[in-house]
Structure formats: structure tokens, C-alpha cells
Amino acid sequence: IFIGAAMDLHRSSTIILLILSIISPATLSMRYELLSGHTKCISEEIHANAMSVGKYSIVNPHEDHPLPASHKITVKVTSPQGTAYHEADGVSTGQFSLTAVETGDYITCISAVDHKPETMLTIDFDWRTGVHSKDWPNVAKRSQVENMESDVKKLFDTVTSIHDEMFYLRDREEEMHELNISTNSKMAWLSFLSLGVCLSVAGLQFWHLKTFFEKKKLI
């Protein structure tokens, strides 16, 4: 009874943490500096069939003047298998969107165009995935009914994300269970093999000592 209660408590805690992780803001928003001729890559784990959008731009060091010609970047977004979802060369700003075909780490690499003398660029980067990738403020209309419809759609997308995440975690749990069974089986065979080797070595030592003592006529 106590074991069953503990398992139910663990499962309930897992579901609560899962809901909180999905409802909480799952966005990657950052500002960083990038030296000309250098590259910075950022990875994001995205589940299959999930939508993801990103925006990037170079911060203008002098707002009263146009962006210098040296302030250009090259951007490339790739899947876990190396498929390019977005490529932009010699730009100062841009955005991308994708729907993941497979689960894994998707990578965005931003390279500053090589320039002499070296120039330090400041990059603004924003990456949203899943429910948070949708621009809900622009979806909502002025009408109260349309606002309610927008809220319902948002809740539906949240529930769908929770459902997909739970199936993903269940599959991962099954994979870990199968891996544990396979590991235990291999360890059992290794133990038997080690025992066999030890017994063989002991037998050889016993035979060697017996032969040695017989030659010396000690036994």
C-alpha cells in the first residue's frame, strides 16, 4: 500500500512539474556581443511537430545614424540531422519559423561578417517554442467574444502540448526501462564470465603448484 501511494505521489508530482514547465514562459531571449569574424551557436531542444519562431537583430550603437556597413551577420538554423531550415547572409535583422519534423536539439548559428579592423556587434536574439511561439496579443481582437475565443484556443494548445509532452516522457521512460533491463542482463553475463575466468586461473595455479611439488618430490 505504501509503495503504491509513493508511486502515485511521484506520478502526481511529475504531472504537476510538467504542467508548470509548459505553462511557464519557455522562451530564450538574450543579448550578447559578437566579434567580427566569429560565430556563436545556440541550441534548443524541440519536440516533433512543435512550432518554433525566432527573431534576431543587430543593435544600432548610434540610434541617430544608420547601421554601419560593417555590421552584418550570417544566420543558419539546422535540425539535429543537419537539415537547414533557415539561412540568411549579410543581414542586420531577420526572423525564422519552423515546425520540427523530429525531436532533438535544433541549432541557430550567428556569424559576424569578417571585418578589419575587428568590430564588436551586439546581437538581440529571441527564440520561442511550442505554445509560446504564437503571437497571442496579435491574435486577440477587440471584441470580447473574440478575446474569449482566443483564450480558449490558447488553453487548447496548452493542453495539447501537455498531452504530447506526457507521451514523450512515457516513451523516454520505456526506453530507460529497456536500457536498465539490457544493462542488468549484460552485467549478469559479465559476472558469470568473471567468475569463470577466476576459477580457471585458480585451477591453473593449483595444477602448476601440484606439478612443481611433484617434480621436487615434495608430495
Automatic annotation (TrEMBL):
Signal peptide: none annotated. This is GOLD domain-containing protein. Belongs to the EMP24/GP25L family. Keywords: Coiled coil, Membrane, Signal, Transmembrane, Transmembrane helix. Pfam families: EMP24_GP25L. Its main location: membrane. The chain crosses the membrane at residues 187-207. Residues 39-129 form the GOLD domain. It is a single-pass type I membrane protein. It is found in: Membrane. The keyword Membrane applies. The keyword Transmembrane applies. It comes from Brassica napus (Rape).
